[in-house]
Amino acid sequence: MTTSTPAAAVRTRVRIPLRFPDGFEVATEAITFHGLVDGAEHVALVLGDPTATPTPLVRLHSECLTGDVFGSARCDCGPQLREATERIAATGGVLLYLRQEGRGIGLYNKLDAYALQDAGLDTYEANLALGLPEDARDYTAAAQMLSALGIAELDLLTNNPDKAQQLRALGLSVSRSVPTGVHTNPSNLRYLHAKVQHTHHTIDLAPVASLVG
Ligand SMILES: Nc1nc2c(ncn2[C@@H]2O[C@H](COP(=O)(O)OP(=O)(O)OP(=O)(O)O)[C@@H](O)[C@H]2O)c(=O)[nH]1
Ligand SMILES: [Zn+2]
């Protein structure tokens, strides 16, 4: 981490057995922190043995109440969370569950943005129309969490180049960006297409290109 980033410290470690609706089960250790710069209640989930490899697999998962909890098909967050949990457990690593709902604009603003998308705007235009940034996420707290866990070098499970870029600028060594699976459905195609076009997410939509309007 850069010298200008304040250090955070582990507050509590507690074991939580996870049981997903599809039957997948895995044990995790949930970790909370003191001293995170943005004051949010971000949580780290340790899966498998992160010390088993010099570059543990890490995912920075931005909170999505609608996708992660309710099963919304408007985005790919729920399936990505499920996928990440299993893949990280297999190799050893950490999932940081970051309280950055709506790319950092909050739940109510995200739902306002959904309403604008239903009126024709894309996911980025909708944020701007609300007078908000396209993407308000800052990963300084994530870098603090990783440093507090003793992780300086990692593989990052993401399709979003900005996440690796920000972590590197914060002094972490991101060995590789490992793409997630492609989780398309009729309700999220336009959203995923906007991510590829606008923010260069590495999502291979070629197999479904003809369906994107
Ligand atoms: N403002 C806004 N936020 C959204 C929208 N759809 C999903 N989100 C939020 O976007 C965040 C997830 O970001 P994504 O752009 O799907 O993916 P990413 O985190 O940038 O990249 P990956 O690491 O590849 O998943 C979550 O916080 C969601 O709540 C939307 O239409 N508008
Ligand atoms: Zn989502």
From TrEMBL:
GTP binds at residues 59-63, 80, 101-103, 123, 158, 163. The keyword Iron does not apply. Binds 1 zinc ion per subunit. It catalyses: GTP + 4 H2O = 2,5-diamino-6-hydroxy-4-(5-phosphoribosylamino)-pyrimidine + formate + 2 phosphate + 3 H(+). The active site is at residues 135, 137. GO terms for biological process: riboflavin biosynthetic process. The keyword Cytoplasm does not apply. GO terms for cellular component: cytosol. Its cofactor is Zn(2+). GO terms for molecular function: GTP binding; GTP cyclohydrolase II activity; zinc ion binding. It holds the Pfam family GTP_cyclohydro2. Gene3D superfamilies: GTP cyclohydrolase II. Pathway: Cofactor biosynthesis; riboflavin biosynthesis; 5-amino-6-(D-ribitylamino)uracil from GTP: step 1/4. Catalyzes the conversion of GTP to 2,5-diamino-6-ribosylamino-4(3H)-pyrimidinone 5'-phosphate (DARP), formate and pyrophosphate. In the N-terminal section; belongs to the DHBP synthase family. Belongs to the GTP cyclohydrolase II family. This is GTP cyclohydrolase-2. Keywords: GTP-binding, Hydrolase, Metal-binding, Nucleotide-binding, Riboflavin biosynthesis, Zinc. Its EC number is 3.5.4.25. Zn(2+) binds at residues 64, 75, 77. CDD domains: GTP_cyclohydro2 (cd00641). InterPro entries: GTP_cyclohydro_II, RibA, RibA-like_sf. Residues 28-179 form the GTP cyclohydrolase II domain.
